[in-house]
Amino acid sequence: MNIPSSMPPGVAFLSGQFTAENGIKKITRCGDLSGVFYDRAAWQAIPVDTPVYRVEMLRSPQGEGELFVGITHLQPGRVGDEFYMTRGHFHQRREQGEVYFGLRGTGLLLLQNEQGVARLEQISPGSVHIIPGFTAHRLINTGSEVLSALAVWPSVAGHDYAALAHGFALRVIEQDGKIQAKEVQHG
Residue 175 maps to which CATH number? Predict the structure, then answer.
């Protein structure tokens, strides 16, 4: 019996790349991350066109009940003593959750609720992270190679970056050769 089928997109786990050719790709450069890093002088010293992370997404239908699938590739590096990180966001529709799967590299997933309570989860190949609704999230690369994580989220979720205009409650830095989380005082 010949059953008609098609080959769906896949992920090459060693490289963390989608096998699909028709995806959407976006690069975020250092110059795009104004206000993200605590040490503004160190941020300004890095050329604005330096790539910090890129996101690949599969083309997906949009609407209630539909999902986006994407992979973030976060470069290793630091701005001052702070590790490279994604901008981080809440969802516009706060009740929408997300799932991250670690593909390669090592780092941290910073999670923060609307009351400003933050926590960190270690991310590495094979780790699975359930990000509940009403939770902001950011990837931080604490390793020496690219950190890649696959994400699945509702296409109606949206992104709300403005809600974090003052940043997250924690900063992850390297101090005296050790990775440390430091609380940030806003005000």
Answer: 2.60.120.10
